[in-house]
Write a structure and sequence with these properties.
The protein is mainly beta and 727 residues long. The chain has six domains: 73 residues, Immunoglobulin-like, CATH 2.60.40.10; 78 residues, Immunoglobulins (Immunoglobulin-like, Sandwich), CATH 2.60.40; 78 residues, Immunoglobulin-like; 78 residues, Immunoglobulin-like (Sandwich); 79 residues, Immunoglobulins (Immunoglobulin-like), CATH 2.60.40.10; 289 residues, Neuraminidase, CATH 2.120.10.30. The protein is built from one helix and 71 strands. The strands form 15 sheets. Strands 1-3-6-5-4-7-8-2 form an eight-stranded mixed β-sheet, with no helix packed on it. Strand 7 and strand 8 form a beta hairpin. The longest helix has 30 residues. It is elongated and about 120 Å long. This is IPT/TIG domain-containing protein. Keywords: Signal. Pfam families: TIG.
Length: 727
């Protein structure tokens, strides 16, 4: 019995294996089934070669035209070429391989035939050559369509038509109609770039190209960014994913397929993002964080923010600020901002209950009262420990969201830290020890003779000596770091003239608003009517340039090149060897020097309430680059408002400082973002020194800076030169 069962079991196993093998063979046969994708031409005379494209073809193939055998000229896995038989009749073309007959399509015996198109792909506006026969007619020109849409025939012969690809024609066959007959050729693949995203970025930015007619293989598409080839990561018929190359430059993106180039939008190269502040640097779930900086995207989805590797969605995005809500549970770690695959690393963030969002004022002196705003503070003042750059401060009052503290006696610039119940939190920015002192002069002081109706000019040398023009006296005073004032060059009596020499032997004849700046070797350069005078550190005066007409303010750029402004219009650039170049400047004010940074001249417009930007390379001007209408408002670009500007100076690090006379304010402009903010706004009055919230000033004249970042300005209303220290 056991032997009988064993035999039955073995028989069943054999049957199963046989069935499985049959199924595999059947699948294999199905996989090899030939498939036709297109054929061309679909008409012609005896002997016309017809190309049949597809897949799965082999050498064991035969063809017939309406049942008449046809010669097979060549075969490959993807194409079979056959010859229309002599004496054949119109009808169906069929292929046969083994026992399988494959229908191809109809073939018409006629003179009209479309044999080939070249190229078989391209963009709107491209010209393609349609080769064939029978294109001539006595009754009218040949009609050509691509995918059913009529194309313009550029030129025609009996065997060749050149046509222009219509806009948005799509992919489809090329057909020619002559004298009521129609012939169809191969399929034309229409290609177009609809959009690229993002439109900005830099090297390494992954760009998605949307469109149609792309090759499905990566190797079939060549992508260029302004002529620089990019890496293609993915490819589909309607999209490409590419990586911007290392040498990417601003310019059009293009895709080349089968030697046919398709133009796309301009990809604009922008620098990587810059993080300036992150507020707060610690906090619990639900805390709203603000990141300020430059070169963020205004599209939320193009900005990615992570804390400790956790992605946090951006809720609001501008070019200079990102806003997001802390989800909690991120843990402590680095904040990283990625904009279109350009990455910048920010400060550490702490996932905790205690955090500082802001403090006011942002600068001051020992004894200044500071309000710290945040969350998680102990409501008992004594249980909050506050330090300014390590120096402990007195906490006057406390709530869970606010602390009032007094800046310590040994105050120095640095971070504010709050410790509560053993948890520490840092403020988003440093507190700066800052204030104003009178360096020289003052009401009733005779060491200086500054007039309230002339903006004057200032310069600071490498040793901290300050030079100031006494316009009405046509001379220059020197102020030592300790405030001692001496006559540097010019007449002791205020006599005018034009005489070179040393010290008081030299004479000047200043115009209304003479300019002055200093070079890297501590040589002063002064505009004196139609000349530019040079004064060495030893007080030796010579003529640097003459015959300029009326010249006003002047300034050096960061490379030591001197720029001199004309009266309302025009100007000159002086290289270090004295080579002179004329500048086409318009609408100049004579009360303020320009700031020259990275081949741009930032100059005061003659309306004196906004700053223009002049591109030296292109001689083009951007009006109202910063400031729009008269008034007082911080903001970006023309949204900001100034009163009457009397001075401009660059700090050499991307910021321009402005003396806003009418508003009694020192303002600053971020060159990258064009954002205008206020450094200090004085109360009107005598030259009262102290913290910014206590200091007073009269009217403001010229402004300059030293290498340490200290600001100097002429207090015209108080006959004084004042110094602002920010550290």
């Amino acid at each position: 019995m056991k032997t009988h069962n064993f035999k039955i079991y073995g028989l069943i196993c054999c049957l199963v294996m046989l069935i499985s093998a049959c199924k595999k063979d059947h699948s294999k046969d199905v996989g090899l089934q030939p498939k036709v994708s297109q054929y061309y031409p679909n008409s012609g005379n005896d002997g016309t070669l017809v190309t049949i494209e597809g897949s799965g073809f082999n050498n064991d193939v035969s063809a017939a035209f309406a049942g008449s055998p046809a010669d097979v000229v060549s075969t490959s896995a993807t194409a079979v070429v056959v010859r229309a038989p002599k004496g054949g009749v119109s009808g169906d073309i069929t292929l046969k391989t083994g026992d399988v007959t494959i229908p191809v399509g109809k073939y018409t015996y006629q003179e009209l035939s479309v044999k080939k198109i070249s190229p078989a792909n391209g963009a709107a506006g491209a010209h393609i050559r349609v080769s064939g026969a029978g294109f001539s007619s006595l009754t009218g020109p040949a009609l050509v369509t691509i995918n059913g849409k009529q194309a313009i025939v550029v030129s025609a012969t009996d065997t060749l038509l050149v046509v222009e690809v219509p806009v948005a024609v799509g992919t489809g066959p090329v057909k020619v109609s002559v004298n009521g007959h129609e012939a169809s050729g191969q399929t034309f693949k229409f290609q177009a770039i609809a959009a690229i995203k993002p439109l900005t970025g830099g090297k390494g930015t992954v760009v998605r190209i949307s469109g149609e007619g792309f090759e499905n293989t990566v190797a079939g598409n060549t992508v260029d960014f302004n002529g620089k080839q990019a890496l293609v990561k993915e490819a589909g018929a309607d999209y490409l994913l590419v990586v911007a190359p290392d040498a990417v430059q601003t310019g059009p993106l293009s895709v080349t397929i089968n030697e046919q180039k398709i133009g796309g939008p301009v990809f604009t190269v922008v620098p990587p993002p810059v993080i300036q502040t992150v507020t707060p640097l610690s906090g619990p779930s639900g805390t709203v964080m603000t990141i300020t900086g430059t070169t963020f995207s205004t599209l939320k989805e193009e900005n990615k923010v992570t804390i400790n590797g956790v992605l946090i969605p951006v809720t609001v995005a501008t070019a200079s600020k990102l806003t997001l809500t802390i989800p909690g549970g991120t843990g402590n770690g680095k904040l990283i901002v990625t904009v279109n695959d350009q990455v910048v690393q920010g400060p550490d963030f702490k996932d905790q209950s205690l955090g500082i969002t802001s403090f006011s004022p942002v600068n001051g002196l020992a004894g200044s009262h500071i309000t710290i705003t945040g969350l998680g503070f102990n409501t008992s003042a004594a249980k909050n420990v506050v330090t300014f750059n390590g120096a402990p401060a007195v906490v006057v009052s406390a709530t869970s969201t606010s602390l009032e503290v007094v800046a310590p006696v040994n105050l120095s610039s640095g971070p504010i830290k709050v410790t509560s119940d053993g948890v520490e939190a840092l403020a988003p920015t440093n507190f700066n020890r800052a204030g104003v002192i009178t360096l020289a002069g003052g009401r009733g002081n005779t060491s200086l003779n500054l007039v309230a109706y002339r903006s004057g000019s200032l310069a600071v040398d490498s040793k901290g000596n300050v030079y100031v023009t006494e316009v009405e006296m046509s001379r220059i005073k020197k102020i030592a770091p300790d405030g001692t004032v001496t006559l540097f060059v010019g007449s002791p009596t205020g006599a005018r003239g034009n005489a070179n020499g040393q010290g008081t032997a030299a004479l000047f004849n200043f115009g209304v608003n003479p300019g002055m700046d200093i070079d890297e070797n501590d040589n002063l350069f002064i505009s004196d009517n139609s000349t530019v005078r040079k004064v060495t550190p030893q007080g030796i005066v010579s003529t640097f340039a003459s015959g300029l007409g009326t010249v006003n303010k002047l300034a050096f750029d960061e490379k030591g090149i001197l720029y001199v402004l004309g009266s309302f219009n025009g100007g000159w650039k002086f290289d270090k060897d004295g080579t002179r170049t004329v500048l086409s400047l318009l609408g100049l004010s004579d009360v303020s020097r320009p700031a020259i940074v990275n081949n741009f001249i930032y100059k005061l417009n003659n309306e004196e309430v906004y700053v223009d930007s002049y591109n030296i390379a292109t001689s083009s001007t951007s009006y109202r680059w910063a400031g729009g209408n008269y008034g007082y408002a911080d903001g970006i670009g023309s949204a900001a408002m100034f009163g009457s500007i009397n001075g401009i100076v660059s700090d050499g690090s991307g910021t321009i400082y402005v003396s806003d006379n009418t508003n009694l304010a020192i303002r600053k402009i971020n060159i990258a973002t064009r954002e205008v903010t206020t450094v200090v706004q004085f109360q009107n009055g005598n030259n009262v020194d102290g913290a910014f919230n206590e200091a007073k000033a009269g009217s403001l004249g010229d402004i300059t800076m030293d290498k340490k970042g200290n600001i100097y300005f002429i207090d015209l209303g108080n006959n004084a030169v004042r110094k602002i220290f920010l550290k």
